[in-house]
Each structure stands twice: as structure tokens, then as C-alpha cells.
Amino acid sequence: ALGELAKRAGTGRSTAHRYMQSLVREGLVIQDPASGSYDLGPAALGIGISALRRINPVETAGRRMNALASRIGASCGVAIWTERGPTVVRWARSASFSISTVALGDVLPLDNSACGLVFQAYLPPDRIAAVRRLQPAAFRGTRPDAGILETIREAGGAELNEHLFSALTGKAAPVFDAQGELCCVVTTVSFVATAETERHFSRLIEAAGQATAESGGA
């Protein structure tokens, strides 16, 4: 309503009305003739759609992981889903921690990695099943039950301690695009003790949320 708009803008109703009518004429705002309420107009929606088309969620997530790696003692990366499973496409090493066994293009285990579990929590079952048939059982790991995947969705991410290497922990969280679809997963690898002290899981989830917001997701 006009009164609320004026209040939030810190101006008078007449001034707010003039501004809104200018926006209506430009197509940036529309006004409901019955209620008088305002909403985004076609021009504003067009600008928003054009902006979304320029966004690359993987690049956005990669920037967030580079920034996170500079602040915590962990290697930070981004994985996408391919026909082979979770695949590392961005990898940033911390000044105080580095793991040499992970590189760009590496495929991660479906069941025995935090990234794999996050993908399973959000992707359709048929896409998961196709990769499960491809990955050898010894590499893939043990299939999680539905309760584990539900816990991941509730927590907003997954954690696995000492699953691949002693004293190390892997954490992962989802990044969504403007349509609410999973577009990539961000992840950290670090020492268990360091992750607990520096709150890596909560900071990773925060970074994933920021990447989602910057990609147009909710």
C-alpha cells in the first residue's frame, strides 16, 4: 500500500505517489486498480530475468569457496553432478591446510563422501541409480538409508568424519539456482579438530546460502 511504501522510504504520501506513478509509466511497477497495491511490472521482471541469465552458479559458488578457504584451515571446493557422479570442478587450498589427493576432475564416491550424500538428498532417485550402477561398490561405499538423507535435508548439509582418511572430515552443502534446482554442492576437507574449533560446518552452510542467494535462489 502507498502508506507503507511512504513510511519505508521515509517520505510523504504525495511524494511516494509521484515516484510510483513514474515507475508505473516506465513499466517497472504495476498497480492493482481494485486494491491499489503495487507489484513488479514487466520491465522490472525483464531486467531480473536478464540478470539471472548472466549468473553462473558454479562460478558464484567457486568465489565463495575461495573466500572461505582464505579464512579457515580447510581446502574448499565445488562439485557438480555428472554421469559418473559428484565431480570436483573448483578447488581452493587453504594456507594452513592442503590435501593433495583431491584435484579438478576427480569423481567422488557416491555413498562415501559428504558431497555424494548431499546429491543423493536432493536429486531424483533415477539419476542416483544410474551412477550407483557405474561406480564399483568398493569405491562407492554403503548406501545410506532414507533417514540419513532426511537428516541431511533438515541440517542443510552433510558431515563425514574419518571416512576416507584418518583425522580428516568432509562437509558439504547444496547450492540452488533461481528455479530451486540443485546446481552444485560446496564442500570442505580439513582436520576434524580444526573443523570443530573453527565451526566449518556452519560456515560452509552459510557460504552455500550466500551462493544460492547470489544465484537467484531462495
Automatic annotation (TrEMBL):
<protein>
    <submittedName>
        <fullName>IclR family transcriptional regulator</fullName>
    </submittedName>
</protein>
<dbReference type="Pfam" id="PF09339">
    <property type="entry name" value="HTH_IclR"/>
</dbReference>
<keyword id="KW-0805">Transcription regulation</keyword>
<dbReference type="InterPro" id="IPR029016">
    <property type="entry name" value="GAF-like_dom_sf"/>
</dbReference>
<dbReference type="Pfam" id="PF01614">
    <property type="entry name" value="IclR_C"/>
</dbReference>
<keyword id="KW-0238">DNA-binding</keyword>
<dbReference type="GO" id="GO:0045892">
    <property type="term" value="P:negative regulation of DNA-templated transcription"/>
</dbReference>
<feature type="domain" description="HTH iclR-type">
    <location>
        <begin position="1"/>
        <end position="42"/>
    </location>
</feature>
<keyword id="KW-0804">Transcription</keyword>
<dbReference type="InterPro" id="IPR036390">
    <property type="entry name" value="WH_DNA-bd_sf"/>
</dbReference>
<dbReference type="InterPro" id="IPR036388">
    <property type="entry name" value="WH-like_DNA-bd_sf"/>
</dbReference>
<dbReference type="InterPro" id="IPR050707">
    <property type="entry name" value="HTH_MetabolicPath_Reg"/>
</dbReference>
<dbReference type="GO" id="GO:0003677">
    <property type="term" value="F:DNA binding"/>
</dbReference>
<dbReference type="InterPro" id="IPR005471">
    <property type="entry name" value="Tscrpt_reg_IclR_N"/>
</dbReference>
<feature type="domain" description="IclR-ED">
    <location>
        <begin position="43"/>
        <end position="218"/>
    </location>
</feature>
<dbReference type="InterPro" id="IPR014757">
    <property type="entry name" value="Tscrpt_reg_IclR_C"/>
</dbReference>
<dbReference type="GO" id="GO:0003700">
    <property type="term" value="F:DNA-binding transcription factor activity"/>
</dbReference>
